[in-house]
Design brief:
Radius of gyration: 24 Å
Oligomer: single chain
Structural class: mainly alpha
Helix content: over 70%
Order of helices and strands: HHHHHHEHEEEHHHHHHHHH
Distance between the termini: 61 Å
Strand order of the largest sheet: 1-2-4-3
Number of helices: 16
Amino acid sequence: MNPSFNLSLALAVALLCNVLLKFWLNTRQVRYVGRHRGAVPLPFAGTIGLVDHHKAADYTVAKIRLSQLDIALDAACLLAWTLLGGLDALNTLLIGWLGAGMTQQIALVLSFSFMGGLIGLPLSLYQTFVLEQAFSFNKTTWRLWFSDALKGVVLGLVLGVPMVWLVLWLMQTGGAQWWAWAWAAFVGFQLFIMAIAPNVIMPLFNKFTPLEDESLKARVNALMQRAGFTAKGFFVMDGSRRSAHSNAFFTGFGASKRVVFFDTLLQQLSPAEMEAVLAHELGHFKHRHILKMMATSFTLSLAGLALLGWLSQQAWFYTGLGVLPSMTGPNNALALVLFMLVTPVFTFFIAPLSSWRSRQQEFEADAYACTQAAGSDLASALLKLYQDNASTLTPDPWYVKFYYSHPPASVRLARMQAAS
């Protein structure tokens, strides 16, 4: 059979299965949450009120229904860009304006990214200013949203365009092994972004102030010393400017690591609970979860670039995805965009493996936290976070397998109690 037809058929079948599977998972989640909406699960009956339980169920269902639209829109866009000829038309238009060459290729990548952002903008705005607003989570003003969007675009151009140029240049001049050089550049770029994020990128969007609570600072310092960790400082981030959701995290490398608390978290948790949450985050470092995640990401990116290196030399790769490759000019940008478009369709089915590994790492971090702080404090902190973030206590088991990077509350707390 014709390789181009085989690829077109494979994409259509994979996309259909992808959409049907996502719809099925969403439907299961809505039904399961709705079925358990009437009563708080027995293990939480003394700590979670029925009003909060109803809010979590309704918030979960509202997000799922919005994601149904997002799934359908993504599928329609993928078909429009590929089999229906959208990317081919855009490429032809830009060649007519700019001629074949590096400028046209960069313009193709930027145009594709810009148009994708515009297409997804209505749903993004609805999520922020309608859905999140309805459940009292949104704190973002229109002025702040425009400011963030403008900064994001400028930052994307400043950091993204040189990287796109470098990858396209390597594809053109790096020979048959260009993908190895591109991978090295990608790894370097990722490490560079991680290095500058705490002091350069993140302060563009949020304000970071030193932690002023001396008793909490002393408690956190004692925990860090007990666990054998160092940090450059403890900071509070003004997350409440945008959302009522809360979090805590580490950022930076080595001795330059920063501990960052959302200001909303400080309002919700006691000092002992804060210590337990931080001990959980330290557990991720103790078990080298961040390094393992980076190693996995870099390995997969190497395999992906190697595959792209081979596919970019096959004419059927282009024609099978609705694009007519140039016989005289470079097709590197086309190959790059097509690969980014179709890869998620063929890799979604391994999502349960990634989610399972992430949940195991959360169990490991919880277990470590219980050796450095009181398990009861971690349990109460997690319950408050589930409650304040309106996280459902009754997710569908199959939905959990595919999407949940953290264990459900019931499983997580039961594991902690058994360990205690």
